[in-house]
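--- STAGE predict ---
source: upstream dedup step, 1 unique chain passed
mode: sequence only
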Amino acid sequence: MQSTTTPFAPPRRSAGAATGDYLRYRLGRWLVLLATACFAVIVVAPFAWTVSTSMRLPMESFSVPPQWIVLNPDWSNYARVFERIPFFRQILNSFIVTIAVVIGQLFTASLAGYAFARLEFPGRNLLFWLIMATMMIPLQATIIPVFVIISRLGLANTLWALIIPALPTAFGAFLMRQYFLGVPKDFEEAAVIDGANQLQIFGRVYLPLVTPALAVLAMLVFNGTWNDFFRPLIFINDPYLFTIPLGLNDLKGYMATGSISVVLAGVTMSLIPVVIVYIFGQRYLIEGIMMGGVKG
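--- STAGE serialize ---
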């Protein structure tokens, strides 16, 4: 009698083996969830401690073990923030500088990225790598010549001193160039056949296709500019023109003798704009990162 089995048929697994595979799958899934939960706790714990401490008395701030739940919140710490620094004015300064830098970098980075990706001109590759080399130079190494230039232009101790030097961005040019290279050239050829010039091709064809990259760059620039402490410390000396990181530093008082609860109340309020931007932009951020990963 001829056998009906073929040499290529997979071996049948017993019910016990299938049950063992299922249990291993479930165990692995629970281990991943446990590791993720532990990581989430480690990340969220400092923020939870910041918010809870901002509603305590200073003497309760460093209790051991730490008190995560505030039974009697002290909201006067938030009122003291406005008494010690011009908080609203400094928040407005941060918004002005941050929004201006975000718009400026999106404009310069998109143009530079398109030029390096799609336009042919002499020395293109050499110029691109020279710009990329500037990313290896720390800000502290160039802050003195930048300060001298800003002072001679009469822009010292103004918000322009924080905006103008931050408009060009090597990282933004690199990021946008990579996304422009990922767009098929067929779109450009079709636009040329329709009679479009380079500016129209850039604005009407390519720019809408790299919206996720623009969103990623905007969120990164917003976060970095909003939290920037070093450049405002060098360029600004008028407390009325301080950005919020410098204002929070003033809350510490002379030789850090100020109330830690008041400082953390200011920190909590300064985090609100960043959290709002992330909530509304996280979808575009994730989409942009995934598209960049797919393109390799």
